[in-house]
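Blinded run. Sample ID left blank on purpose so nobody reads anything into the name before looking at the predicted structure. Input follows.
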Amino acid sequence: MPAVLIDGKAIGLKIREGAKARTAVLRERGIVPCLAVVLAGEDPASLSYVSAKERALAEAGMESRDIRLPASTTEAELLALIAELNRDEKVHGILVQLPLPAHIAEDRVITAIDPAKDVDGFHPVSVGNMVLGRPGFLPCTPFGVLTLLRELHIPLAGAHAVVVGRSNIVGKPLANLLTRKDVNATVTICHTGTKDLARFTREADILIAAAGKPALIKPDMIKKGAAVIDVGVNRVPDSTAKKGYRLCGDVDPAAVEQAGYITPVPGGVGPMTIAMLLQNVVQAAERRTI
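Blinded prediction complete.
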């Protein structure tokens, strides 16, 4: 029996509607949640992501302050802009779209953002709060994956979760969230240095692929009935596609015959990332009113 396709769009819409309702309450008090979105350069994928985020903000009744900078922008100029946004009381969240031009140090830029406005959840203070289980912003994609699993009532306590990928944006924070006491999964992290990857993935009740390698996970690498979350978004050449490429995940599409649940690409994790961003922005605005 084929896997149940996880509808990230539908679940993401539910989260977005909740953020929209909370925004309406704030607007009645004269407070409009505002996210400053900073994009340096003309990376096509980044332009697409930023546009999607801005549309979602508008639909939720939030303000998007769109700041586009040339690729030649210096690190000092970008840091000065962030300092200005930190001081602006009308701005509740700051998002600097990654990747940045090569001459700008991402770590310095992320660290310059006021943790109270770090709705991406990348600041060292946000990461520390997450690891210690303290209140703070959670990174949007890992938060979205955990929310997907919970919304579908997929058993987490005592489950063996295998995370393939160890990035600071997805792999590491997701492993941390899954080991929290209120989740209680047992987690194995695999990466490029893992020998015999399939030996680990076949043991997973929950398999999360976040390696950035097209079709890395084959059907025979998946435990029958496992929940498979495909975080990968890879562009592969396709002469039959209008844009000359198509999007695919880290999981071979044929895995639908082996898994119990599986997220499609696109339409799975992506919508959840934007939904959790909206939730973080409205949360930032609410905190500023306390």
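Unblinding after everyone has recorded impressions. The chain has a mean pLDDT of 95.
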